[in-house]
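Open question from group meeting: does this chain pack into something compact, or does most of it stay loose? Before anyone orders reagents, we agreed to write out a predicted structure and look at it together. Recording both the input and the output here so the notebook holds the full record.
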Amino acid sequence: MTLRTVLVLLVLLVLMLPWAASAQQTAEKSEAYVVDTGDAWVDAQLQDINHYAERYPDSFLDEVARYAGVSRGYIAALMYTHGWQAGDIYFACFWAHAIERGCRDSVQAWSRAVPEEGQPKRWEDVVAALPVTPTNLHWRALRHAIVASHDHWDRPIKLDATLQRQLGDRAQRQRAASNPTPSGR
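Structure tokens returned:
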């Protein structure tokens, strides 16, 4: 490589840094984040996930890729290239996983959604427009995934009464995860 080529590449890199930084999850983006899934507990957790992704974007991307079964490159592009909020990425991919669809289906539905004039986009409306009618089992799967992610991240989470009955406290969840019962027993 010639010196001129190296200099051109360095200049391009310097010019791209502000653009790349603006697409990352930041405290300002997280503070301004408003989400409406129709479930206040889920909304609060998605806001917390945004704050987590500010500090640990790689861990966030790894979690979604591994447990929602989505290409890490795809979700990284949503976050860094398209400026998606981490909470929206999490919801899109884990909701799609719960309804046995691809994350791209949720992403495309969100991208196509056009709210009433003066109204924000709402996941509640997008979910209703997807081809799979949402059931309590879908919401339960999403809520359990959120708890599992917080446990993987060693992040505290306040469970509502229903989740507390279903999953127990953190110590109970850790014991259950380390001693899975074989199927058929």
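Observations to bring back to the group:
The longest helix spans residues 3-22.
Residues 14-22 have pLDDT under 50 and may be disordered.
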